[in-house]
Specification:
CATH architecture of the largest domain in chain A: Orthogonal Bundle
CATH topology of the largest domain in chain A: Tetracycline Repressor, domain 2
Helix content of chain A: 55-70%
Radius of gyration of chain A: 20 Å
Oligomer: homodimer
Number of domains of chain A: 2
Strand content of chain A: under 5%
Order of helices and strands of chain A: HHHHHHHHH
Chain lengths: 208, 208
DNA sequence: CTAAAATGTTACCGACCGGTAACATAGGGG
DNA sequence: CCCCTATGTTACCGGTCGGTAACATTTTAG
């Protein structure tokens, strides 16, 4: 641990402002607005204001709006992968437990969402440019995640891991879009149910 | 049939222009661009140009860009519901057949998609305003579709139709997002497989 | 042919947006 | 104390976009 004499490890900022460092405040504010109003629907000025700072300072931390977007996406991805590590830590050598816990956490997130779907999914839709750096970040994350699920299915003893993993992925991804019409709660419950069934029987759905 | 002396039922337009009526050309061009570049990423000028006309004429057919968007969404929705009717016509009294054919058609669409996911899904992400008319159109469509699937599951004899219908919906919706990392072909095949298994066994996945 | 309707052309407006320059202010460390 | 750095403020630029007006041109109908 560091001493607190000069600063507490994070730069402490001005007057009544928050104690959270500016860069982080900007990222949080940007995330909020991006998710609520869409990436293209919010301007940097509004982001700066929501972060209790101004456009100039924002541009001292981020070279461009695109970089801010990318950095935000990176944060989400990092958080999700952190979640995976935690899942692995809590259920070491228990791939079934990881999958089940995963579905439960997802259901909890769904319940707390209501309208306006997945941040990553929306970002993907809002950044059509295939060369946008944020797209690469998302794509690589999705790939890693899917590989992880395949590995889990394999070590869980599913007879066709590629097949089961695709099912899990489709269910998880689909839950977001469906929740908007069916209701997040019900979708979350059914998601947990089907994952439990698949895992408990340790085989693909409806295998005879 | 009408005579062709004055016009052939559709207003015939200028010189080298297409024989397709302007309004339709605009809608098609708008759809192309919306899907490829995102709704907010394309301007009305570009749409008019792609439709081989101009902005002024576009605004004589559509009061605003938002109305054009809404009309485009309406078209997609209408087309999908047409598809459902066709499904019902081809497999009368055979809900299982309808579900299976549905998954096959979806797989075919996925194969022909490659990158850039579902038009409706993207539109939903790009129109965060909950009062946007296009959102209502989409939401009502999703609701009707889901009810339809529930009805099919019920008449197909699934023991828990609400549960099975949610699964179908999640799988279908999720297929779009997943295809971008796993590959549309594989996702499509696995989608068909799981639907077949669920239907053939006439029970929920992994039910013992 | 002629008149009316549809379409094309050009120019423009106001609003917003991403990004930058220049300068003012404040705070902290020596 | 003073200097240096981080932050705030203001004004501005160039570009794009949605939307409209006014007028020219073409197409269609009678």
């Amino acid at each position: 641990m560091q001493t607190d004499i000069h600063n507490n490890g994070l730069k402490r900022k001005k007057k009544g402002r928050s104690t959270i460092p500016i860069r982080e405040r900007i990222l949080v504010a940007a995330g909020d607005l991006f998710h609520k109003q869409g990436i293209r629907g919010v301007g940097v000025e509004a982001i700066a204001e929501a972060a209790q700072t101004n456009k100039m300072t924002l541009y001292r931390y981020f070279a461009s709006k695109d970089e801010l977007i990318t950095e935000w996406v990176r944060g989400i991805v990092a958080h999700k992968e952190e979640d995976w590590k935690d899942l692995n830590a809590r259920h070491r050598g228990d791939p079934q437990g990881q999958l089940q816990d995963w579905s439960r956490r997802m259901a909890a997130k769904l319940r707390a969402m209501e309208e306006r779907g997945s941040a990553l999914g929306n970002a993907f839709a809002e950044l059509p440019d295939p060369n946008h750096p944020a797209r690469h970040v998302m794509k690589e994350h999705k790939l890693r995640e899917h590989k992880r699920v395949v590995r889990l299915c394999k070590s869980a003893g599913f007879p066709d891991p590629a097949f089961s993993a695709d099912l899990f992925s489709m269910l998880l991804e689909g839950a977001h879009s469906c929740g908007t019409c069916v209701g997040m709660r019900q979708i979350g419950e059914h998601l947990v149910q089907v994952v439990d069934l698949m895992v408990e029987n340790n085989r693909q759905p409806a295998a005879r």
